[in-house]
Fold this protein.
Amino acid sequence: MLSSQIKSNEIVFGNCNKDLLEEIIFYGMRLGAEFVEIFIENTDNASVLAEEDFITSVSPSFGRGAGIRIFKDKRDGFVSTNDLSKHGLMRSVSQAIEMLDITEKNNTDDFNGLKKHKDYSLSKKTWVDEVPSIHEISEKLLVSTKSLKKNNKIITRKGSYSRNLQEVIIASSDGTYVSDIRLHQTVGLNVIASDAQYRSNGSRRFGSSGMPNEFRLWDHEKAANDVFESSMNMLYADYVDAGQMPVVLANKFGGVIFHEACGHLLETTQIERGTTPFVNKLNEKIAHESVTAIDEGISEGSFGSLSVDDEGMEPEKSVLIKDGILKKFISDRAGELRTGHKRTGSGRRQNYSFAAASRMRNTYIAKGEHSKEDLINSISDGLYCKSMGGGSVGATGQFNFAVEEGYLIKNGKLTNPVKGATLIGEAKEVMPKISMCGNDLELAPGFCGSISGSVNVTVGQPHIKVDSITVGGR
Amino acid sequence: MNSKEITTQISEAADSLNLKKWDYGASFSNDYSVQVDKGEAKQLKASQKQILTIRVWNESNLVGITTTSDISESGIKKALNQANIASDFGNKNERTEFSPLAKDPIEVKDSKKRNPVGIKKLLTLLREAEVKLLESHESIKSVPYNGLSESFYERVYANSDGAFRSYTKSQAALYLYARAEEKNKKPRSSGSVKLGYGVEDIDIESCIKDASNKTISHLNYSSIKTHKYLICFSPESFLTIINAFSSMFNARSILDGISLSNKNSIGEKLSTEALNIYDDGLHEKNISSSPFDGEGTPTKRLCLINKGRLENFIHSESTARIFKTMPTGHAGLGSKVSVSPDWIVVEKSEENADLKISLDHSSYDGEFVYIEELNAIHAGVRASQGSFSLPFDGWLYKNGKKISIESATVAGDIKYLLKNIVNIESNQEVTTSGISPHIWVDELSITGDA
């Protein structure tokens, strides 16, 4: 039953907002909406930058806002606002209704009020007090950048930290009423090494979700050693010769290629657009039988994990590809409505100003049976990509990725470091060429930018071998 | 609250917190956008957004900052308090002050006021555009990426020294990316973007025509042999590469050790004498022009490369003070103030006798690669090292024929590229990021899979 009395005229975090949320949803349904969803957030963020031996930037920010989405048939109208008053939210609902040109009235029979409040934030309310203070962050970053100063070839040293604390309330006309608190922390180290005309970069990023102590536990010495070694290894590297060759992609962030080149093509937004070659391939072989790939939001502490997605659904573990066979797409509410693929708890958005869309969470290729050495030993002339830079996928599925740290493979052994390599290909053609998977699966945090903004994700894989791929160079 | 009221509110709140020195930048916007899918409205969006960034100086003259979307009285007080706390961590080694030019006159372009046309009109226009694009060629099967938007915004800068400046503006954008498919061939995709002050200023027909022509022109494709080729950069692709390596002109990047230039690089020969490059945020063709930067410094035209030699760096207040010059109107507003170019203008200088003027993209009949558009800039550019390896859309011209290149990258070094410019065509073209003619470069590496 809907409450007939209005108890508050503004959303207040920490209070019960059920009556006001019901009234807003009821208002939208009365105006003819088939579905109303309200996403409200309150954020408290901070970032700190250390350069050389000084803190050069401390940037706190906070804010609040609401995103209201109305569905009618298969169309949706989305309005975002910073005004969390009853008047502001109702105005947003009206605007969305008007945008969709809805003239029929009253779908209130389809709304039976909000269900019992599901509060995922109960055990998380202390996080805001448990995260490290700016002072503590600054001290550790300065120790970290000092650790990078290992010889006089290192000309710039940077350490950066950012923390996003997001409190959300999600309510919709199917009765969904949930609250949650999300905490993401990330820290990165970067160096530039220089010697005469030679220059190289080294960088590593680490991240976690829902673990207020994680930054304190971060092994900055190990991270600094990795970054330093990478920059030194690459400082005098020659440019790689371009061509077709077999490659071994390292574990952890090597998984970015699967994420970009294949994972995005398994999101229902791509089916809606008609831009995925896998649209009619469910239960068909799309990859080598050694490949099993997973997307999930449940690994504790992983950067892409969630208690509940941005549409109020608990995330599931989705086996996307099993032994090379396509088994599932990544779906959100609009994706289910428009493509028929069931929601997977993958409706995600950067913040209130974006409508949720089907997005990856922790996405990785499952481990196989081979050792890293098995993979390298199997190649007589190829490339080992130890560390990947960024990349992108074009509108027709071609991808390209920069190799940050690469080594030539000659007669089954790693030899000279090489720079300037770019991996170029298409998922449809490369997936069947992943012929060997290592037994050393590891995950790495990252940020994924797409239709609903930038979201925290994890990529991952064991070492994998691709039988042949185009390597761009000079 | 309007911008004057917010300034008063901040001033009063700062007084109550005994904060003597502060400044702020704010942005208030109303945005509307639509997307369509085969005639159906796909997503319709509207947003009201406000962003306020406040800086305060503490008694030790160290700066703290906070950004918020909450401009209520309590939100402003909280922001001032947080900025004050953050000022304890202010950078002692590089002081920040108000821009000495924050009260200088600004040049506000007299653009005609546009009113929102509304979502329904946006939707009608985009539907019509999609239909026309689909009908323009039988191989164009869909327009998977499309959008029509209009935005109305106000930007403000004010400080405790009495500086106050604001401007209001509108901008509209149309993008159409089509996908063409032919039997037994890979799908091909290309598109076009047009900007205007309002929707009525956008040349929709030309956007449809460009998107169609570009997409169709890639239908006949082939892979390219890995080799070094004579290159012709389109205006858009040359501006992309200049912007990607703009740290060469950026005083902030120099101080941070991530630029190819150094403090003493002014006067250094970077390219052929025939090349001039300016940054001209106030250019009449720049739809996104802003009359002042994040620190309130007026925007102005600045010569970056004059007859092949580095002429000026772009500056914020603090970098200008360190370099013993004046700010140039290129600052953001942050805890660490960023510096970035506005709108690049590339032109042929008077010293152009050495150029090979026979190299003209519309008439040259020798072999060359035409680079229409560079992609994946964030992944393929090493600005601090000067190197790039970028995928591109383009054509191979050979034996009088033009064939689209299936999938390839161009790799090189920016200093090599600038020094090996062999022609700068005469006609400049306006793009969304600046103005440039076609630029010819002798021998860059292309990787293909032929």
